[in-house]
Amino acid sequence: MPIKISDSLPARAVLDSENIFVMTDLRAASQDIRPLKLVILNLMPTKIVTETQLLRCLSNTPLQIEIDLLQTSTYKSKNTAEEHLLNFYTTFDKIKNNRYDGMIITGAPVENLQFEDVAYWNELCEIMDWTESHVHSTFFICWGAQAALYHFYGVEKYPLENKMFGVYEHKLCARNIPLLRGFDDVFFAPHSRYTTILSSDIEHVDDLQILSVSDAAGVYMLTDKIGRRIFVTGHSEYDADTLSREYFRDVARGLDIKVPYNYFPNDDPKNSPPQTWRSHGHLLFSNWLNYYVYQTTPYDIQTVGVI
What we know:
The chain is built from 10 helices and 12 strands. By secondary structure, it is of the alpha/beta class.
C-alpha cells in the first residue's frame, strides 16, 4: 500500500529500509484516484515507535492512504520530543470539521486507572462520539478497545492478578466474516495489559459479536454488527522486540514482572524472540482497510456519516 506521509517523518526511513512503499506528495498528486483518509489518535507514550508499527501494518494493500496523526490537547506526552509533536501531530480542535474513511485509536498504559480518572478521558469521549458522524469505521486497540466498549456499551474492565504479558494462541469464533478472511484456524498475537474484559458481559450486548478468543488471554477480537467499530484487545502491530523492551524496562524499574509467555525461546531472555504474529497483523489491518473502509466508504468523503 502506498502510504502518503511527510518526507521527514522518522518512520519514513525505517519503512524505506524495509522495502515498504511510501509515497511522496508529488507522486500522490499525479494519481487520479481518491486516497483513503485515515486519522490515528496515538495515545502511546513512545509515539514514534507506535507510528512506525501502525504504518507498517497499513502498508500491505494497493490502496493510497493519507494519514493524519492526532494527539490529545488535555495531556502532553512526556516521552516524545516536543519538536516531533509540533511537526507531525495535530489536535482535535483542528480536525473536528474533517471527515475520515477510517480511524485508529491506540492503547495507552493507563489501564490500572478508572476510565474517568484518566487525564484526557473527557476529550477522548468527545472524540469517540465524534467518530459516529465523521468517521466511517474506527479500529480500537487494547486499552483503546476497553475504553470504547465502556463508553459506548458500558462494558467494564477487570483487574488481573498478574499482567497478561506474552504471545498467545487464538482461535476463531465466527466464519464468513470479512475481517477474518484468510485467517488460520489458530493464530498468535501479543498481549500486554493489566486488565481484561469478560465474554459474559459482551454477550449481553446485542450489537456486539465476538470474533476471536484465547483460552489464556480471553476475548481478543470483536466488532459491532455493521463493522463501524472494530475492537482488538491485543497488539498485533507490535514489533518482534516490543515485549522484550517492555520486559527489560520493567526489570530495570524493579517491578515484579514475569518473563513474557511463549515469547523468548526456552523462556530465556538472553535469546532473541521470533515474530510469530507478523502475517496475522498484516492480514488483520488489510482486511479492515479493504472490507470495512475502502469497499463501503462513500466516494464523496463529505458524505461520511451522512449516508
